[in-house]
Amino acid sequence: MHCKHCGEELNRDENDGFCCLGCNTAHSIINALNLGKYYEYCQTIYFKMPMKVHKVINELNYIDYINKTPQGYRISLIVEGIHCGSCVWLIENTLRQQRDVLSVQLNLSTKRLVIEWRNQDERYINDLVNITEKLGYKLIPFTPDASIAENQRNEHELLKCLIIAGFGSVSIMMITFGIWVANNNQEMTPYLRDMLHWVATLITVPAIFYAGRPFFRSALAALKARHSNMDVPISIATILAVAISMQELLRSSHYIYLDAAISLVFFLLIGRYLDLKVRNKARQAAQNLVLSQAQSITLFNDGALKLTGIKNAEAGDIAFVAAGGKIPVDGIVISGESEVDSSLITGETLPVRVREGGFVNAGTINLLNPLKIKITRLGENTTLSEIIRLMENAEQGKARFVQLADRIASYYTPVVISLSLLTLIGWLLMGARTADAVLYAISVLIITCPCALGLAVPIVQVIATSRLLSQGILVKSADALERLAQCQSFIFDKTGTLTEGMPKFVKSSDFPQDQLEAIASLAGQSRHPLCEAITRAYTGKLISVKVSEKKGFGVEASIAGVNCKLGNQVFCNVKNTIDDGFSEAWFKADGKKAVRLKFSDTVKADARQLMTWLKEKGFNTGIISGDRSKAVAIVAEQIGLPVYHAESMPQDKYEFIETLQKQGVKTVMIGDGLNDAAALKLAHVSMSPASALDIAQTSADIVFQGKKLWPVREAFEVAVSSVKLVKQNFAISIAYNLVTIPFAMFGFATPVMAAIIMSASSIMVVLNAMRLMLPKPAKVG
Predict the structure, then answer these.
(1) For the segment 410-424, what is each residue's pLDDT rounded down to a tens digit?
(2) Fewer beta carbons within 10 Å, N or C terminal of the chain?
(3) What pLDDT was estimated at residue 206?
(4) pLDDT for 689-748, tens place per residue?
(5) 24 three-state secondary structure
(6) Are residues 649 and 344 in contact, defined by beta-carbon separation less than 8 angstroms?
């Protein structure tokens, strides 16, 4: 007989068909609310039984986390214990039936629950928490970092500036284009031209000063700190272009220069907005990682379970973790046997079996059975906290990169201003009229406008990243390609990076084919990753069987009167096994020898081809993985890499990259898991497949789509080409200034000519960068 709620096998017919009072209470609530379909959804859609309900004394304070709304109250919570869509359905429908509840939203991916209610005291949240806990779920107050909201506000402000600058650019281009055409054909009266110039000014000047605030603030802050960055010459050029345009407007000149000013602001804002958006996403992912640290813990004390804040726990206490729950501490298992999803720490996708005496880490998930854990480390001392600290240290190191454009700007700005003043003073000393001397000085400022210099790097970045994006390669860091072109070493994670990250059933030559049908039939009744691998590999007919599952061990059924088991070696009574690098399961039919089922992780199709290319180019390559040594050795041999490091924890990967950095070896790290995140942050350049965890993707400089590794080669080749083009653009900008500045200083360039020449330099830079879009020449031979 089994429990009516969780399906646990009962040893005696007591408690009216329930294993405990908790399951009895949950079953009664579900049926009283007419939500009995929950059990049907669990079994027929998600193939899982509800979790066993444990009675817990809740000592958390929820009232401090409530927000007041015009309609009533609102709270955000993290739900522990949900494992499929049926849990979401049950919680949402249960809470929606409670009085005065306005809305309930639960996200299965983030496990974040938002509840709004009205016309009740804020203490009503305790009633809602109580009924949810009776269903078997824990509700933990969600405490987002205020800095995330501030970053989002900054992003929103920058987006508004970008929209205003875009509107101003389009508007003035429409007007000035008409003026230019009419002036050339002598078809416009001075009155109409002045009127259109005034319209353009009324639209553009407010747009420039509103949209240009990010540059103006940055330039002012730099000047107050007595240094310069690229925002200083950009701000000076923009403001002077406006001032000169106003002067030309009042003089009824044929041309004004507001289009150059607003266009410069608009294009630079595009790059700045995209950069900020990527940074905010990275901060959000890092914040989610911090929030994955336990804020609460269930302590086992004198036979009772007590839910309390993690700050109230100490090393030596006993923590209780229900099946499906997140392990909140590092510790040693003292009671229970289960499987743990440790992918957050080790990066390996297959569950790890733990039993009494085994060690578990904070942040991992208990999959099958309840565990009692003696706490050894908690809070800031856990392995998960160490990973977060390593990431923060690596991020601080990356912030020390000084952008090339800012280094040039520190010299560029004072030189330009000095040359303009020298021109003004020189012409005045030579007896020129003050108006003419000012006009020549302004021409110098216009002709030396840092448009070409400002575009030298961004335009190549835009074209290079666009080219890569069209091939499914997302470049997230502004200087990633520049750094990638400098690298001499490529280090790869194994699972999910060099391999598919999905177990594959391997049939040996002596495999008993006559038992495969029975094996696949049992495997089809389980959601274990190894059973799913068998199901994917089998294409024949299945036998209809009714299995019983022993959580953490395997499944069992009677086939044609023969008792058959599929599971681990203990379940199938296998005494000896070997470690040859393969994952394993066992099948045992009564009266027959146990059959070992082997599983391997499939190497990506072009992994060996990429390694061959890297060797031909002279790069150092290697693997560093958290997997077993023999499993890593198999993959290393398949792809032709003699150097590999196995059984590496996140700290090991971080220190390995750190050692290479100290030796002056600029390294590319390619990985996909949280255990790679700190190393990804620290590496000179980092890459991650799109299938990686969010935190790995946000730690990486480059993210690529698909199941192949060719994007690593493509990104490197584009990086090398883009660096060459950037250097050429700087050369063009420098040559332009060396030629045109004397031209302007000696009075040969009017402001109009200076504006045309300045635009021509920008066009040259853009056209040179567009060479990156040309197709590669076909290989001969």
Answers:
(1) 666 678 778 888 988
(2) C
(3) 92
(4) 876 655 566 677 888 877 788 888 888 988 888 888 888 888 887 888 788 888 888 888
(5) helix
(6) no
Confidence at residue 780, expressed as pLDDT on a 0 to 100 scale:
35
Residue position matching structure tokens 């750190």: 658
The CA distance from 145 to 284, in Å, is 9
Cβ within 8 Å of residue 324, ≥6 positions away: 51, 80, 81, 82, 83, 365, 366, 367
Using alpha carbons, list the distances in angstroms from residue 682 to 195, 651, 709, 742, 772: 58, 12, 22, 46, 29
pLDDT at site 426: 92
Give me the residue label for tokens 């499914």. 472
Q: Tell me the per-residue pLDDT of 272-318, one tens digit each, with 9 for 90 and over.
A: 676 566 556 545 555 555 555 666 788 887 777 777 777 778 888 88
* The residue type at 386: E
Q: Which two tokens stand for residue 780?
A: 């001969």
Distance in angstroms (rounded) separating the CA atoms of residues 239 and 438: 16
Provide the mean pLDDT of the chain. 77
SS3 assignment, position 568: coil
Structure tokens that stand for 521 in this block: 């039939």
Q: Give the whole-angstrom CA distance, residue 150 versus residue 393.
A: 22
Tell me how crowded residue 156 is: count the other CB atoms within 10 A of its CB. 9
**What residues have CB less than 8 Å from 196, skipping those under 6 apart?**
175, 178, 179
Full DSSP string of 654-706: HHHHHHHHHTT--EEEE--SHHHHHHHHHSSEEEEETTS-HHHHHH-SEEE-S
pLDDT per residue as tens digits for the range 1-23? 678 887 777 766 555 778 777 88
Which tokens in the block code for residue 512?
A: 């008993």
The pair of structure tokens assigned to 749 is: 């360039």
- Prediction pTM value: 0.53
Could you tell me if 643 and 624 are in contact, meaning their C-beta atoms sit under 8 angstroms apart?
Answer: no
Helix and strand tally (H, E) in the chain? 25, 28
Question: Can you tell me the distance from the alpha carbon of 447 to that of 752, in angstroms, rounded to the nearest whole number?
Answer: 10
Active site residues: 493
Minimal CA–CA distance to 439: which of 418, 424, 419? 424
